[in-house]
């Protein structure tokens, strides 16, 4: 077992640009241990990495492309997950239905802009694709990552995430709608002077099992002046004409 001081001194040598092999020979610490410490103790960017993680720096900051981050956060909270990899690093996966190629491309674009040096893959599954990216810093950017399903554990935003959402609420709303929401056309019929007429009207729905995520969605709607109603414990409805028009202007249907 190594104490924390020994671990940080070894990582400082790696941060100087030295290989894991040379640090291992000098310190007697295995390369496997060094890799694990890189993930767990203030993860370090690698030499030549163009975009080091803003959350791992000494002075913590927010991602540069904040609008793209807000959108990607919405996608992650709806249909995303992060899983550790056996060889180190993490895999971010966002599930996107085959029916919405525009959504798939928007998801790929957002990931690329948030982490330009992390490659993005599209993996086909039955009825959907997994937009996937491998990197060391996804848990840093999405601290809501954790064991178990999201609706079975608390989901809270960090203060820096809250600031981004306050500045880019529509991007966050669009990400949530694109993941777990939809725009549909309802209809009703009325009989006027003996004649039955059919009336159609659009509305938005957002569906999620997590009360915390529903709360994040409705808080963002309140911020931008959208009226909403909780249809049941898992569904939020936006049906008022003016609010639907706002949603159409800033979100729109999936494509």
Give an overview of the whole structure.
The chain has three domains: 4-40; 66-169, Homing endonucleases (Endonuclease I-creI); 177-250, Roll (Endonuclease I-creI). Helices cover 42% and strands 24% of the residues. It contains ten helices and eight strands. The protein has helices at 4-15, 20-27, 31-40, 66-79, 101-114, 138-141, 159-167, 169-180, 211-224, 241-250, and strands at residues 80-84, 90-97, 120-125, 128-135, 181-192, 195-207, 229-232, 235-238. α4 runs parallel beside α8 (169-180), α7 (159-167) crosses α8 and α8 crosses α9 (211-224). The longest helix has 14 residues, at 66-79. The protein is elongated and about 90 Å long. Mean pLDDT is 86; it is low at 42-50.
How many domains would you count in the coordinates?
3
- For the terminal residues, how far apart are their CA atoms? 54 Å
Determine the mean pLDDT: 86
In terms of DSSP E residues, the strand content is 15-25%
Q: Report the major sheet.
A: 4 strands, antiparallel
Order of helices and strands: HHHHEEHEEHHHEEHEEH
What is the CATH superfamily label of the largest domain? Homing endonucleases
Q: What is the C-level CATH assignment of the largest domain? A: Alpha Beta
The poorly predicted ranges are: 42-50
Shape: elongated
Specify Rg, calculated over alpha carbons.
22 Å
